[in-house]
């Protein structure tokens, strides 16, 4: 029986995604916030192991990292400690968002919204909007409809690392991709430990997301990954009206 999402890979998520060019991605995010004149206090939802939270903190933002995976948060706290980052990390789920006070900005980077079921999407965006100060910014991305249907769906990937191997099996359904992940991590004695988990990513068209955001009270603009092509990833830059 497979475990819930991010129970197996949560503690090493940043390590497994080391080829994502987190440095360039985080600088894009920081430049986007600056260009939109975002305030200094924010929440990084779905923070994983906290790379973007740490980058925002180092750029002078007062930011809280939030994730619903205890394994991911534990690693985030340790990595922040090692880098001298004083950001706070909290357990939380974007579909049940409730903040104490209003944030100047909220980020949800690297597919966080793809994990939100369709029936919870409008309520989630409404909760994010109510958690922001007037004029506050909500910045997030999704894996595109094309990517999930053509690049990810019904395909299997194997990624080898120095101390781990990840096998990623995907099944394309009508409105989502069911993902089975098998992680082998190398022990000090040379043996490997196997961990299994399952994930679901929901397929959203850009127009569907934009309509839900506008209905929640946002003005919306979109662009591709790092400001480039939208084929694989779409960024949403949303301002609370």
How would you summarize what this structure contains?
With 241 residues, the protein is an alpha/beta fold.
Keywords for this structure?
alpha/beta; Rossmann fold; N-terminal domain of TfIIb; 4-stranded antiparallel sheet; 11 strands; globular
Task: Please give the domain count.
Answer: 2
Q: How do the strands line up in the largest sheet?
A: 3-2-1-4-5-11-10
CATH class of the largest domain: Alpha Beta
What's the total count of β strands?
Answer: 11
Radius of gyration: 17 Å
CATH architecture of the largest domain: 3-Layer(aba) Sandwich
Order of helices and strands: HHEHEHEEHEHEEEEHEE
How would the global form be characterised? Answer: globular
Give the strand content. Answer: 25-35%
What's the CATH topology label of the largest domain?
A: Rossmann fold
- Output mean pLDDT: 94
How many angstroms separate the termini? Answer: 46 Å
Structural summary, described in words:
By secondary structure, the chain is of the alpha/beta class. The chain folds into two domains: 10-143 and 205-240, Vaccinia Virus protein VP39 (Rossmann fold, 3-Layer(aba) Sandwich); 147-201, N-terminal domain of TfIIb (Single Sheet). The protein is 28% helix and 35% strand. It is built from seven helices and eleven strands. It has a seven-stranded mixed β-sheet with strand order 3-2-1-4-5-11-10, sandwiched between helices. It has a four-stranded antiparallel β-sheet with strand order 6-7-8-9. A hairpin with a 3-residue loop joins strand 6 and strand 7. Helix 2 crosses helix 3 (51-58) and helix 5 crosses helix 7 (206-216). The radius of gyration is 17 Å and the shape is globular.
